[in-house]
Structures are given as C-alpha cells and as structure tokens.
Write a structure and sequence with these properties.
It is built from 18 helices and 25 strands. By secondary structure, it is an alpha/beta fold. α7 packs antiparallel against α14 and α9 runs parallel beside α13. β13 and β14 form a beta hairpin. The protein is globular, with a radius of gyration of 25 Å. The protein folds into 2 domains: 242 residues, 4-Layer Sandwich (Glutamine Phosphoribosylpyrophosphate, subunit 1, domain 1), CATH 3.60.20; 195 residues, Rossmann fold (3-Layer(aba) Sandwich). It binds 5-amino-5-deoxy-1-O-phosphono-D-mannitol. 5-amino-5-deoxy-1-O-phosphono-D-mannitol binds next to α9 and α16.
Length: 613
C-alpha cells in the first residue's frame, strides 16, 4: 500500500515525480506529497489531501524545482488522511523520508525519541523513521550508513526513500517486506514501488531483494545485502509498454480491463496448450515429477484471488480427484494449520505483493522447509514469484482498476490448466476429456467477446439498482464462488451491500432478508443442479423480490413477473461456464457504480495492492 517514487537527474525532477505518482495511485490515493532539494540545497515540501491532481494543482501555482526528490501517494494506516499525515516526513529540515509499509514498533520508538527531544508533527508510524535516521546520522559518516544503522531498530515492513541536504547528491533506499525498484537511465537514476511509475523514463530496472539497501547518485547505484555486504543485482529489461497502461478510448481502467479479457485469456493460453493438450511443463520443468507426488492441494489468497481459488477447489477435486482446501491468507498465516505431507501449496495473487498472501507462504515455508509451492500470479517480478518454487504467470497485462476483472478470469484459466495438469499426472484425465477441456478453453476468447456484446442489456438492468442498498447473489457449486465474486465487485465499486449464498442455503436464514427492495441475482448454468436451483428461484420469487437470472440458454429458466432472464451462453462445460458467467456480473457492477456516480477506478477506502497487514 502507498506508492513511492523518487530520483536524481539532470533536469527538474518534479514533473517526473508527479507523473510517477499518478501511475502509482492504484496503491493509494488519500493524500500525496513530495520533497525536493532545491538549488539552495534546502528541502522544499508540498503535500495535499486526496488525489495526486490536488498536489499538482498546488504545484502549478507554486513551483518547486530541483534535481533530487522523493514523492509519495498514501493509503492511510496510522493516522487519518490529512495534510499533516501525508508523506514525505521531515526531521529538523535535514532528513526527508517516504515510506511504504508499517513500522510495528513505532509507539516504542516514538516514546524513546520523544525522550531524546524529538517533536512529532504527525500521527504516522513513518515519522519515527525520519527521527531515527536523523539520530543515527550523528554517529555515521554517510547517509547510507545512517539508514543502515536506523533500520536495525525497525520491526515490520518497509520500503523507504531518504534524502538530505547534508548529502545532496544521494538518495538512499532500504527494502524489507515492501517492494522497491531502481530505474536506471543515462539521464539519472530513479526509485519506485513499481516499475509502472517509471516506464515512461526507462526500461532498465533492478529489483531490490529483501533486506537490501542502496546508495543512489545520478550516475551510480551501490547495493548492499541484509548483512551490509556490497552486492551486484541483475539489471532487467522490462517488457511493459507505456501504452499498456494508458486508458485509450475507455472511460475507466476497469472498463478497458473488462473489454481486454478476450485478448488476456488468449495470452494466458498461448504456448501453454496445443489444440488438444495442456503442457504440464508450462508450470516448470520439475512440475511433472512434483505434481505426480502431490496428495493434497492447499490454496491461499485474498479477495478476488481467493474467489478464483474457490472455483479451483471444485475443479481439482472433481477432475483431478485431489483433496483441495482454500483459505483466506489473512487467517491462514496466523493459525497452526495441519500441513499434510505431499501438499502442493498454491498462492494466487494478481500483484504478487499482497502482504497476507506473502506472509502465509513464508509461514508455511518456515514450518515445512520441503513444502512444494506454486504461485499463480500476474506480476513477473513480484515477491511471490521470487519466493515460490514454481510460478505460473497469468499474462493479463497490467491491471490498474482497483476492482479486479481480467486478473480474475485469467487466474481461472490458469487454474483450469493446473487442474488438468494435476489430473494428467495422476492419470485421472483421459485424452478425450483433456481434448474437450482444451477445446473449451481455446473457444473462450470468442465466447467472452460475444458476452461483452450484451453490455446494453446489462446497462438497462443496472438502472434498476439506482435506489438499492442491498443485493443478494445466488449460485450453486462453483457458481457460488462466481456469485461471491459478483457480490464483491458490486460492494467495492457501487457501495451496495451485497452477499452471496449457495442457493440451497437460503432457506436456512438469509431468505429473511428478501423483500421488494433487495434484488436477487442468480446464475443458472445448465448442469446437474439446475432443477434444484430452479426450485430455489421459486422460493425467492414468492417473497416478491426483483430477480435477474443469468442463464445458459439450455437452462430454459421460465421468466416470472419481476424476473429478467438473460441467456449469456449456450451449453457450456463446467470449466468454461464459471468464466463466462463472470462477465455479466463485472459489467453489472461497473454500470451500477457509474449510475451511482462513483469513481469506478478509485473506490473509497481501497487500494489496488494491499502490501500491509
Ligand atoms: O493482488 P492480489 O490478487 O493478491 O490482491 C488480492 C485482493 O486484494 C484483491 O483481489 C482485491 O480483493 C480486489 N480489490 C478485488 O477486486
């Protein structure tokens, strides 16, 4: 959470900082700020609440110039969103700091520093970092040494960028638990929480490792590992294109990303399947051997990625016949789970940086050094990729909209491939079955495109939500997980309270919620549970609610008064159906949020990447 950008270059750094912050807004947007070393060698800071545009407006009236600077866009953890809590934080006009993460022992450090005479001007945990470095500098000969000394006191997670007028030609950074990249160019060197922030300036990046610190000047980068030993880190060339992160003709990133799904799914499948086979080696050259030994699968993830995991449980148990458990990472990491021998530990994450998911993986690795881990991830250079034995990239392309869309459907495609790969290694999938599944997957991009063409029908339905405050989503089997994803999407961008239930569970309590003001959205695939679902729909309808049923044409749900039945597909299999039924739910929440007048790409209180607990 929170985005950092900084740099030392030949020209004015301020426009680069502002551009970088805008690209990092997905990480938080409740306040923003920057501090620059001016030509008089003083720290000049500007901060504003709200979006980066507010900071930019101030800078348009009151320019700040300098070649060295650091900037920050915040998602509040300690202290309300306000100007005084916005970063950068400054100590005694001599240390400027931006920070992403949480210093867990900040209260203890704060009282020690107050006793030493340091005054606090914010409620943040970050301010202790500035004071610690200031204190350490009294005993050190360089800014780097002072940062290396100060961080030994910090517990928690951090990536920090530090500048000081005492060392005007340097930025010092430290990384532990939160991401940080260094961008290299012949015009200067830069830092950021994510390469996206700098892709306009350079394609050459160094991804710092856990515990690394670095001393950066305009033409040099010296990196030190967690023991303070000077190290070389590989310089990687990013494949990201600047255009990939532009909105193009779309009104919102979310809309763009919904409509990118046919291409994203094709990219996920490319080189992983032939016309009738799943290539097990797509999971790594050791995958075949490893998958053959797997007796259990444990999936952990958060939010939308967790919902993808729930769908996978149905698939893996049904097709590969391997017992599979799914749990939210924030719970899993703190309990003492029984980890059975020969478990494949699968984490799912769009960003690869979600703190709970990463810590759950680390906790499992600590308990069982031989655990086999696989991550399904969209971010090639992420911590989860680095720390897992096997990795499988979803190739959705950058997802900027806070509400996850193409990441989810490409995760499902990846998990379907995993399911077949496991099933093949366990001799549970016949050639014929494999061919049928691969055939279905190869048809998906076209089917998704066709479903997207139903947007106008969905806009009409969305209009009926204008005055609604509650909604219920129903599905059975794997469609319950899709209903959960539909409810999550509606909640996070339209702020309508939405719950998802397995349709058969309604009569055990939640049916009491149903009245004419609570729309019910049901998913009706043509499968063995269809007749049961139809009975559940009758139960709901007789309580007078407005209903929307997204059905497989072959399901032939008979519309009743107050019920809209929308066929979205025809005779789909158990793998392709959940993916297709996701599309109308994404479009519905997008259009409801528009009708409610919400900022679709920046929903309140949220951030794209949750890199803190
Ligand atoms: O990057 P991750 O997939 O690990 O993120 C997990 C969740 O934070 C994320 O899916 C979140 O729930 C989205 N806002 C959902 O749209």
């Amino acid at each position: 959470m929170c985005g950092i950008v900084g740099g030392i270059c030949q020209n004015n750094i301020t426009p680069i900082l502002i551009d970088g912050l805008k690209r990092l807004e997905y990480r938080g947007y409740d306040s923003a700020g920057l501090v620059v070393l001016t030509s008089d060698n003083v720290l000049q800071r500007t901060r504003a609440t709200g979006r980066v545009a507010n900071l930019e407006n101030i800078l348009n009236l009151q320019e700040i110039n300098g070649t060295t600077g650091i900037a920050h866009t915040r998602w509040a953890t300690h202290g309300e969103p306000s100007t005084k809590n916005a970063h950068p934080h400054i100590c005694n006009n001599n240390i400027g700091v931006v920070h992403n993460g949480i210093i867990e022992n900040f209260l203890q450090l704060k009282s020690q520093q107050q006793a030493q005479g340091y005054r606090f001007s914010s409620d943040t945990d970050t301010e202790v970092i500035a004071h610690s470095i200031h204190q350490a500098l009294k005993e050190c000969n360089t800014l780097l040494e002072a940062v290396q000394k100060a961080i030994t006191d910090f517990q928690g997670a951090y990536s920090v960028g530090v500048i000081s007028p005492t060392y005007p030609k340097h930025i010092v950074v430290a990384r532990s638990g939160s991401p940080l990249v260094i961008g290299l160019s012949d015009k200067g060197n830069f830092i950021a929480s994510d390469q996206l922030a700098l892709i306009n300036i350079t394609k050459q990046f160094i991804f710092l490792k856990e515990g690394d610190t670095a001393d950066i000047t305009e033409d040099s980068v010296d990196i030190f590992d967690k023991n303070g030993v000077k190290v070389e880190r590989e310089v990687k060339t990013s494949k990201l294109q600047n255009g990939q992160i532009a909105k193009g003709n779309y009104a919102h990133y979310m809309q763009k990303e919904i409509f990118e799904q046919p291409q994203a799914i094709s990219n996920t499948l490319e080189s992983r399947v032939t016309k009738d086979k799943v290539l097990v080696s797509a999971f790594g050259h050791k995958a075949k051997d490893l998958f053959s030994k797997v007796k259990h699968v444990q999936i952990i993830a958060c939010g939308t990625s967790y919902n993808a995991g729930l769908v996978a449980k149905y698939w893996i148990e049904d097709i590969a016949k391997i017992p599979t458990h799914v749990e939210v990472a924030s719970e899993y990491r703190y309990r003492n789970p029984v980890i059975l021998d020969d478990t494949l530990f699968v984490s799912i994450s769009q960003s690869g940086e979600t703190a709970d998911t990463l810590e759950a993986l680390r906790a499992v690795k600590k308990r069982n050094k031989n655990i086999q881990s696989l991550v399904i991830c969209n971010s090639a250079e992420s911590s989860l990729i680095r720390e897992s034995k096997l990795s499988f990239l979803t190739y959705a392309g950058p997802e900027i909209g806070v509400a996850s869309t193409k990441a989810f459907t490409t995760q499902l495609v990846s998990l379907a491939l995993l399911c077949v790969a496991l099933g093949k290694c366990h001799k549970q999938v016949s050639k014929q079955q494999e061919k049928a599944i691969v055939d279905g997957l190869n048809h998906l991009p076209g089917l998704v495109a066709k479903t997207l063409n139903q947007e106008n029908q969905i806009i009409a339905l969305a209009k009926t939500f204008e005055d609604k405050y509650n909604a219920l989503f129903l599905g059975r089997g794997s469609m319950h997980a899709i209903a959960m994803e539909g409810a999550l999407k509606l909640k996070e961008i339209s702020y309508i309270h939405a719950e998802a239930y397995p349709a058969g569970e309604l009569k055990h309590g939640p049916i009491a919620l149903i009245d004419k003001n609570t729309p019910v959205i049901a998913i009706a695939p043509n499968n063995e549970l269809l007749d049961k679902l139809k009975s559940n729909l009758q139960e709901v309808k007789s309580r007078g609610s407005q209903m929307i049923v997204f059905e497989d044409e072959a399901s032939k749900v008979v519309p009743m008064q107050g019920m809209s039945v929308i066929p979205v597909t025809n005779n789909l299999g158990r793998i392709t159906a959940p993916i297709i039924f996701t599309i109308p739910l994404q479009l519905l929440s997008y259009h409801v949020a528009l009708i409610k007048g919400n900022d679709v790409d920046h929903p309140r209180n949220l951030a794209k990447s949750v890199t803190v607990e």
